[in-house]
Design goal:
By secondary structure, this protein is an alpha+beta fold. A 5-stranded mixed β-sheet has the order 59-65-64-61-62, with no helix packed on it. A 5-stranded mixed β-sheet has the order 67-68-66-69-70, sandwiched between helices. Strands 1-28-27-26 form a 4-stranded antiparallel β-sheet, with no helix packed on it. The chain starts with a helix and ends in a 12-residue tail after the last strand.
Length: 1005
């Protein structure tokens, strides 16, 4: 039996060697930043090298610079009717057809418009345009055929119709062979179209007994040799030679074939994607099968075994749409690893290393060593020899107390502080001993204080200890616990008791990352300033859990969050700026950050390393193939910038990355294409205007964007451009993907672009345009100038003629203005009382009547108040007429202040009598205002002691109501006068409101 197994293994090995001699093994990677989508069911490429990815959540277009997503939006007819796309097909006219769960969509790449065709209410499973430009649509409920290019009339084929019959309604694919015969693959075999009968009949090419005769067929295609290939679900791939009427089954480990790609790389291969078995590449001649499956422990393996789609673009890039990610392989070369294990696995197999079997919880460095912890193992790597030395956590001889190491603070090459779930320890490598710190462990009672999540040694040798639940502890190895800070209701306390890191920046500020916000310690007041997430504050921190910290060479602080990306903090402005997946990060969950000291940051997400360009604020995610074997990044990285090395903790050990090697992978090449052209902000459609373009002489700004089509991560392009007619030589674009030309002179230009990384002088793309001459000297403009000059001469003559006339007119207007001013002054004087400065009796008669008429028109009340000064004659006799006049003037001035609007009236009725008329004033408010006037006059002597020589009071009569035609303005004055008379009768210095009993007062009548 043993020899038999050996024999079989040898046969498989030889078969593998034969296959490998013909085709290079594939190594896959993903691009989560460029292509952050899953379930890619169809892939297409247009004539401009733009890629289209049809997914179950919409269509994504990638032009080499940006991605644009097209998805269903409710109540918007310009979008696709369903984001769940089942199939995609690009025809020869650059028209992309999408079969969705809600009908057929036509996407015109030239103008970006989408047209919906309600072919069927069922799922569209296949789209095909034949050599006669007829359109065929397959659904799960029949086949549809359209002869006209406008897709207005569709003929249905199903098993219910006699005239347009097909044996099975579930259509999986549609194809055409070299004879022009149309085939439909169904759940009941293959059916071919009989154009004479205009109906489908069973395929005549399938021999009797072939499983494809009545099986579930997904594909039926013809290769260049005239051989037909049939994929039957659950059976495998079948080769049919029509001339010999024979078939041959190519068995596969998993025969659930979902997608088929003929002429894979060469004519000798065919590739199939399966529903759960991964990808198989089959040699048509030898039948050798090379499987590609998902395997986390194998570098370059697929991410998922469910394969929806296969596509190879013009530049030999293979795209595999799986259930969880888009997998990519460079068919022109093998993928390489930029990250290597810190310790060689072959050596590790000879020397058992416990720390490689568990997650690295933390990293640290000293002068000559890299330190790490894994569970209860402390490991130290010599930087020169990279030999690991493990130190199991043993408190006493042969006793391991379930300790987990969470943090390391290195003192020297031989000593370190160790934070564990059992408290704080001191490690000495000379004795390989872990000494418990009794000044800390023996003086804490809270069990949360024992879980030391972070340790930071300050310049004075004291420690800042971050715990998982007991806050922050300031500890002295000599004196013990100096202070403990916990969250409380006291203002400026620690924001949370769960601490993830403690560190100082170059300015000496201590920062604490917690489970609820970022804290800054203020030593002067011994408290904290907290930065908490606020959804309404975009200049604040982007998440509450802060896991990592670093400072770049310019002094900016960078904080990694658990779900908010990275935040840059400017110590000068104290403002944050957030960067997330939108700028290229592979994930918003950040494991750690370290500074590369050359304008870049290394940022670890769970499974990807991100290179962040600080100047350009962009990130590029690197799929490190070793991570598939290791699993994920597990702790914050550390950088030895003087050595150009970076170290990353994972779930299975430590990875080392050389900065030089990582940069080398970025300096490769790919072809460059012109992607966009704008003139003064107006975009030019390059799909429809690729011919020479003409711009107006007014064009001031021309911007041309260029980029490579999608290329392998190993092929970094270096774009160079030249504008013939302007640039003397080629200009290297560096990291720019556009160039802008301003104020170009009129003339003809041709823009050229190429990739100088290729080392060949090959122009990849070009576009020509012309800027017209100015039409300022055209015949039209000359006639315009003549007309303008004529108009100017005519206007000059008119102006000269009118000059003297205008002078006489000005003199007359000046005299007229003097007369008008004199007349206005006379009119104003005729209406004012010269002593009090308020209206006189004439003014009262004119304006009062207008107010009365307006109140009748709008049906609103008016109030009439009449008052006079009590015992004014005695006042004059006692203090003199000058004092009496001064009293009248003061009262008039005070009454002016009470004018509410232009519709209120205050005037001197005669002698010491005054009249007030107020528009739209009800009786209760009239009484209130009158009482205020009375009190004001009564207290006037106190306010004007120097102007008034004696005390004065007034009596006021008030009438208020809605006037009518019968109730004239004079009658309202009369009623107010009656009320005034009653006020005098009853003691003076009071306000009396009119009632009908006052009509009986004899003197009033």
């Amino acid at each position: 039996m043993k020899y038999f197994i050996t024999f079989v293994s040898t046969l498989f090995l030889m078969a593998g060697l034969v296959f490998c001699a013909d085709i290079t093994p594939l190594s896959f990677y993903t691009e989560p930043v460029l292509f952050p989508f899953s379930e890619v069911v169809g892939i297409a490429e247009d004539s401009h090298d733009c890629l289209y990815f049809a997914t179950r959540s919409g269509l994504i277009k990638y032009n080499g610079i940006t991605s644009e997503k097209y998805e269903h939006l409710p109540f918007d007819n310009t979008t696709i009717r369903s984001s769940q796309i089942q199939t995609a097909y690009m025809d020869a006219d650059d028209i992309l057809w999408l079969g969705t769960y809600n009908g057929l969509e036509r996407f015109d790449i030239k103008n970006g418009t989408i047209t919906h065709f309600p072919v069927s209410d069922d799922v569209i499973t296949a789209v095909f345009r034949d050599s006669k430009r007829h359109l065929w649509i397959g659904t799960i409920n029949g086949l549809y055929f359209c002869r006209d290019g406008g897709c207005k009339n569709f003929t249905p084929f199903n098993n219910h119709q006699y005239n347009s019959f097909i044996g099975n309604n579930t259509i999986r694919s549609i194809s055409e062979d070299s004879r022009g015969v149309i085939y439909a693959s169904t759940y009941d075999g293959v059916w071919q179209y009989n154009e004479t009968e205009r109906s489908f009949e069973p395929c005549s090419l399938i021999p009797e007994g072939c499983p494809g005769k009545n099986g579930v067929v997904y594909h039926f295609i013809e290769d260049i040799s005239g051989v037909y290939w049939l994929s039957v679900w659950g059976v495998g791939l079948i080769r049919i030679v029509p001339d010999k009427n024979k078939y041959e089954i190519y068995s596969l480990p998993d025969a659930r074939i979902y997608t088929l790609y003929n002429n894979f790389i060469t004519d000798d291969y065919i590739a199939v994607g399966t529903w759960g078995g991964g990808l198989y590449v089959i040699n048509k001649k030898t039948k050798e099968v090379t499987p590609y499956k998902a395997n986390q422990n194998l570098a370059g393996a697929l991410t998922n075994n469910v394969v929806y789609s296969l596509f190879i673009n013009k530049y030999n890039m293979l795209f595999v749409g799986t259930a969880d990610a888009l997998n990519i392989a460079d068919l022109s070369r093998l993928s390489g690893d930029i990250a290597v294990p810190l310790y060689d696995e072959d050596a590790a197999s000879q020397k058992k290393l416990s720390h490689l079997d568990d997650t690295i919880s933390c990293l640290a460095s000293s002068t000559n060593y890299i330190w790490a912890a894994s569970n209860n193992i402390l490991v130290r790597y010599d930087l020169d020899q990279l030999e690991p030395e493990e130190f199991p956590f043993i408190v006493s001889k042969d006793q391991v107390n379930g300790v987990i190491i969470y943090s390391i603070s290195v003192i020297s090459d031989t000593e370190a502080w160790i934070g564990t779930n059992k408290g704080l320890y001191f490690f000495d490598s000379n004795t390989a001993s872990f000494t418990p710190i009794s000044l800390y462990n023996g003086r804490i009672s809270d069990t949360s204080s024992f879980l030391v999540r972070s340790v930071y040694q300050d310049a004075d040798d004291t420690l800042w200890i971050g715990t998982y639940g007991a806050g922050l502890v300031h500890f002295s190895p000599i004196k013990g616990i100096l202070s403990q800070y916990r969250h409380s209701d006291v203002p400026r306390s620690l924001s949370n008791d769960i601490i993830f890191f403690t560190n100082r920046d170059s300015r000496g500020t201590l920062w604490i990352g917690t489970n609820r916000g970022l804290c800054r310690y203020v030593s002067e007041t011994d408290d904290f300033i907290s930065y908490l997430y606020d959804v309404n504050k975009p200049t604040g921190i982007s998440a509450n859990r802060i896991d990592s910290f670093c400072e770049d060479s310019r002094g900016f602080l960078w904080f990694g969050t658990n779900d908010g990306g990275i935040c840059r903090f400017d110590p000068k402005t104290e403002l944050f700026h957030t960067y997330t997946k939108s700028i290229g990060l592979s994930s918003n969950r950040i494991i750690g950050i370290t500074d590369a000291d050359d304008g870049f940051l290394w940022i670890t997400a769970l499974k990807y390393l991100n290179l962040f360009d600080i100047a350009h604020e962009t990130a590029q995610a690197y799929n490190i193939t070793n991570i598939r074997r290791y699993g994920y990044f597990s702790c914050a990285p550390i950088a030895l910038k003087d050595k150009g090395l970076f170290f990353f903790g994972t779930d299975k050990g430590i990875l080392k990355i050389s900065q030089e090697k990582l940069y080398a992978f970025r300096l490769q090449f790919a072809p460059i294409k012109i992607r966009a052209l704008t003139a003064d902000g107006q975009s030019i459609n390059l799909y429809t205007r690729k011919q020479s373009i003409t711009f107006s002489y007014k064009t001031k700004d021309i911007k041309i964007s260029f980029a490579a089509p999608y290329f392998s991560q190993h092929k970094k392009p270096i774009a160079a451009y030249k504008l013939v007619g302007f640039d003397k030589d080629w200009v290297v674009a560096s990291d720019r993907d556009f160039v802008r030309y301003t104020n170009l002179s009129p003339g003809s230009y041709t823009f050229l672009v190429k990739n100088v990384a290729e080392g060949q002088d090959v122009v990849h793309d070009s576009i020509s345009f012309t800027i017209r001459q100015s039409f300022l000297i055209s015949p039209v403009m000359i006639w315009f100038y003549i007309v303008v000059v004529s108009v100017i001469v005519f206007l000059a003559y008119k102006i000269h003629k009118l000059y003297w006339l205008q002078r006489y007119t000005d003199l007359l207007e000046e005299k007229q203005l003097v007369l008008i001013q004199d007349n206005f002054t006379l009119k104003e004087l005729s209406l004012l009382d010269h002593l009090t400065g308020i209206g006189n009796r004439r003014y009262i008669d004119m304006l009062g009547l207008k107010i009365w008429q307006m109140a009748i028109e709008h049906n609103v009340p008016i109030a009439v108040m009449m008052f006079d000064i009590d015992f004014f004659k005695n006042y004059n006799d006692r203090f003199g007429h000058q004092a009496g006049d001064e009293l009248l003037r003061l009262i008039g001035a005070d009454l002016k202040k009470r004018i509410r609007t232009e519709t209120d009236l205050i005037g001197r009725y005669g002698g010491e009598e005054f009249l007030i008329v107020m528009y739209n004033l009800p009786p209760e408010k009239a009484i209130h205002i009158a009482e205020g006037i009375r009190k004001t006059i009564e207290t006037m002597h106190g306010r004007y002691a120097t102007e008034m020589v004696g005390q004065a009071t007034i009596s006021i009569g008030v009438f208020a109501g809605k006037p009518t035609e019968k109730d004239t303005f004079e009658q309202m004055i009369h009623k107010a006068d009656c009320a005034l008379y009653r006020a005098k009768q009853t003691g003076r210095n009071k306000v009396v409101f009119y009632d009908t009993t006052m009509d009986q007062i004899t003197d009033c009548n």
